[in-house]
Amino acid sequence: MAKAELKTKQTELSVSDFLARIPNEGMRADCLKVLKLMKKITKCDSIMWGTSIVGFGTLHLKYASGRELDWFTMGFSPRAANITIYLHGGFEQHAHLMSKLGKYKAGKGCLYIKKLADIDLKVLEELLVSSY
Q1: Percentage of the chain exceeding pLDDT 70
Q2: How many alpha carbons lie under 13 Å from residue 41 in its C-beta half-sphere?
């Protein structure tokens, strides 16, 4: 049985072109701030992963199932309803920061933020540094 190949991979697409095409001006401005913050924290250049995720750094993941893949260490994506911020390791160990972050929703390894004005940027930076 053939393994399913990961669809989201590093591409040669331009991050700046991608972000410039965000139609919502507020979302675009917020994404540029997140871009700057993640670049500062990771000290890595941004890379497009697939057609809609901006990632920083790379790491090789190996799951208990034996599945292996290369992924980014930190990233984000402007979605229709929010900015999705991708982190590793979950949020349980960051409960003290999550309680101070502001208005957001969370998935297993994702934060969903409607706009940066809804959260405390200093707390977001602490969370990103801690998870990185």
Answers
A1: 95
A2: 23
The band of 30, judged by pLDDT with boundaries at 50, 70 and 90, is: very high
pTM value? 0.89
CA dihedral sign of residues 128, 130, 131, 132 = positive
Q: Which amino acid is at 20?
A: A
> Phi, psi (5° rounding) for residue 66?
100, -10
CATH number at residue 66: 3.90.1150.200
Into how many domains does the chain fold? 1
Domain span holding position 22: 15-131
Q: Identify the helix (H) or strand (E) that includes residue 100.
A: helix 95-101
**Is 123 within a domain?**
yes
Instruction: Note whether residue 24 is domain-resident.
Output: yes
Q: Answer whether residue 121 shows pLDDT above 80.
A: yes
Domain-located, residue 36: yes
DSSP 79-95: -SS-EEEE-SS-SGGGH
Statement: residue 68 has pLDDT above 80: no
Cα four-point dihedral sign 47, 128, 82, 29? negative
